[in-house]
Amino acid sequence: LFLDRSRAPERQEQRDAYREVFEALPDRVVLRTLDAGADKPLPFLSLEGEPNPALGVRGLRVALQDQAVLDDQLAATVEAAEGLECDIWVMAPMVATVDEAQWFVERCREHSIRRAGVMVEVPAAALLADALCEVVDFLSIGTNDLTQYTLAADRESGPLAALNDPWQPATLRLVRMTAEA
């Protein structure tokens, strides 16, 4: 819906696409909000160039700068689920702090979304997993980014490919911390 486009999809287009998914998967759907920036730049977001985009404005940080994109996605999600029995869970990518998680949950509640969670993709989120659990309904672990950030090894760098192994002991410790929380 979002990649390779010069402008954001209209709310109706999003609603129709989500409705198709919700009808095909009537029990539960976990929808991740837009994860743009870094290796997924989108021209309609007008993100400024950054010296190190992987450590810059991406994931939820994009929504903090352009709330309308997130609000359209959340509204389209709710509209798409109207009249269906599907249990919709919505999660935000690239969350690093409890304040970011709380802000996202509040946005979801404003749109009547009952289950709001966050992705654990940066070490800070894993280290704060217990505190995050106090404000969100669920966590989801993204091991590819968690590994990349834990080992300071860009996942797109060929010479560093060996470090982007999800069995790295440091990554596994962060996964364990998150699961225990």
Question: What quaternary form is this?
Answer: single chain
Structural class: alpha/beta
> Ends: how far apart?
33 Å
Largest sheet: 4 strands, parallel
Q: Catalogue the unreliable spans.
A: none
Q: What characteristic shape results from the CA principal axes?
A: globular
Total helical segments:
8
Spatial order of strands in the largest sheet: 1-2-3-4
Give the radius of gyration: 17 Å
Strand content: 5-15%
Mean pLDDT figure:
91
Number of strands: 4
Q: Roughly what percent helix?
A: 40-55%
Order of helices and strands: HEHHEHEHHEHH
Task: Please give the structural blueprint.
Blueprint: H1 11-24, E1 28-32, H2 60-65, H3 67-81, E2 87-92, H4 98-110, E3 115-120, H5 123-127, H6 129-133, E4 138-141, H7 143-150, H8 169-180
Parallel strand pairs: 1-2, 2-3, 3-4
Helix pairs in contact: 1-3, 7-8
List the defining traits of the structure above:
alpha/beta, 4-stranded parallel beta sheet, 8 helices, 43% helix, globular
Question: Can you describe what's shown?
Answer:
This protein is α/β, with parallel strands linked by helices and 181 residues long. Helices cover 43% and strands 12% of the residues. The protein is built from 8 helices and 4 strands, in the order αβααβαβααβαα. The protein has helices spanning 11-24, 60-65, 67-81, 98-110, 123-127, 129-133, 143-150, 169-180; strands at 28-32, 87-92, 115-120, 138-141. It has a 4-stranded parallel β-sheet with strand order 1-2-3-4. Helix 4 (98-110) links the parallel strand 2 (87-92) and strand 3. Helix 1 (11-24) packs across helix 3 (67-81) and helix 7 (143-150) crosses helix 8 (169-180). It starts with 10 loop residues before the first helix and ends with a helix. The model has no long low-confidence stretch (mean pLDDT 91).
